[in-house]
Design goal:
This protein has 384 residues and is of the alpha/beta class. The protein has 2 domains: 216 residues, Spore Coat Polysaccharide Biosynthesis Protein SpsA, Chain A, CATH 3.90.550; 151 residues, Hexapeptide repeat proteins (UDP N-Acetylglucosamine Acyltransferase, domain 1), CATH 2.160.10. It is 15% helix and 31% strand. The chain has an 8-stranded mixed β-sheet with strand order 5-6-4-1-7-12-9-13. It has a 7-stranded parallel β-sheet with strand order 15-18-21-24-27-30-34, with no helix packed on it. Strands 17-20-23-26-29-33-35 form a 7-stranded parallel β-sheet, with helices on one face. The longest helix is centred in the middle third of the chain and has 12 residues.
């Protein structure tokens, strides 16, 4: 079976981390976002014969990273020249489709167990129960396995609490419906309009996610997605190849890769992934869920908690990094604190020039690739 992954978006809401790389390559617990999707697909019984990636933004970086295959399964890259929506993106691959196929959004995390359930019916979509459905495509169902209607980002109250989360098992007939879709009010060809047409003919099935679904749309989602991956990682992903000096303490849930050194007095606690050639200084404390990427150096006496440090990061002595994402090649000077507590109100983050409410009362800083942090930060601050 072919698997189509939509990965053409520029991911502007994920700035500053998508200024230098496409969203598909955002690192989550040591692997790019889209590689996690590849691995989940390979765990299903779909017998994937080809990955088809619909690309545009920084597509050459994706091609360079993965090449023409993954785990010996060929990858075909199809460019979506114009940003005309998910329906248009899927039409780009029509000529390459041989039979029934899977289609997934490229910026979300899904469990292979939920993907497997979608395979049980032709023309089937994966749904998620959600309390606030206002920012999603809401799906009305008959309670017997069939979709009745899809309402894209409703402006009025709706009866359903089920949303479309972007995993589909389609037959080739979807393309006939896609060719009938007209431009929406957003000037896009919406895939959900074709799904509605299938539903009108009583041909669209659904199943509800019972494992996990994590969208990765904003910088703080990197932290929640990382936690999900670490909580669901399997034993074969655990490595204990680094050097732990006498007097250091590393809990069994931690993973330490080749060439990394944990100096005396350091404590590594909980779900922590330490990449290759990392240097953890004396008396450092790292509390999971956290990821310390390859080539990073953490100075003595520093604390890193519930954070992601990118490749070749430099964390000075006596720093306190909490609930933060530190980009590749970034430097945090000595004695810096990323303040993260806002007990009385939720934290706002500047996204595309607008303040977005994260809904969180604990959130640190987001530091861009190559940036230097020379002063302590306030909750939700973006440093470029």
């Amino acid at each position: 079976m072919q698997a189509i992954i939509l990965a053409a978006g520029s991911g502007t809401r994920l700035h500053p981390f998508t200024k230098n790389k496409p969203k598909a390559l955002i690192n989550l617990a040591g692997v790019p976002l889209i590689e996690f999707t590849f691995n989940q697909l390979l765990k299903t019984k779909a017998n994937i014969s080809e990955f088809i990636l619909v690309v545009n933004y920084m597509q050459e970086k994706i091609k360079k990273y993965f090449g023409d295959s993954y785990n010996k399964i060929p990858i075909r890259y199809v460019k979506q020249d114009k940003k005309l929506g998910t329906g248009h993106a899927l039409l780009m691959v029509e000529e390459f489709i041989k039979e029934d196929f899977l289609m997934l959004y490229g910026d979300d995390l899904y469990s292979f167990k939920d993907i497997q359930k979608v395979l049980e019916n032709k023309n089937c979509m994966l749904l998620q129960k959600l309390e606030d459905v206002s920012n999603f495509g809401v799906v009305s169902v008959d309670g017997k396995g069939k979709v009745i209607d899809v309402i894209e980002k409703p402006t009025e109250a709706v009866d359903s609490n089920l949303i479309n989360i972007g995993v589909f098992h389609f037959s080739k007939e979807i393309f006939g419906f896609l060719h009938k879709v007209e431009l929406s009010s957003r000037s896009e060809y919406e895939l959900t309009d074709a799904v509605k047409m299938l539903a009108e003919e009583n041909k669209m099935h659904y199943t509800i996610a019972t494992e996990f679904w994590k969208p990765v749309g904003y910088p703080w989602h990197i932290l929640s997605a990382t936690q999900t991956i670490l909580e669901h990682r399997t034993d074969e992903l655990m490595v204990h190849k680094g050097t732990v000096k006498a007097g250091a303490m590393v809990e069994p849930e931690a993973s330490i890769d080749t060439g990394s050194v944990v100096e005396k007095g350091a404590r590594i606690m909980g779900l922590v992934v330490i990449g290759r050639d990392v240097k953890i200084g004396e008396n450092v404390t790292i509390v999971g869920p956290s990821v310390i990427s390859s080539g990073t150096i953490i100075g003595k006496g520093s604390v890193v908690e519930r954070s992601v440090i990118g490749v070749r990061g430099r964390i000075g002595d006596n720093c306190h990094i909490h609930n933060s994402v530190i980009g590749d090649d970034a430097t945090v000077k000595d004695s810096i604190k990323t303040e993260y507590n806002s007990p009385e109100k939720t934290i706002l983050v500047d996204v595309k020039g607008k303040k977005v409410d994260t809904g969180l009362t604990q959130l640190g800083a987001f530091v861009a690739k190559g940036a230097v942090v020379s002063r302590s930060t306030v909750p939700g601050e973006v440093v470029e």
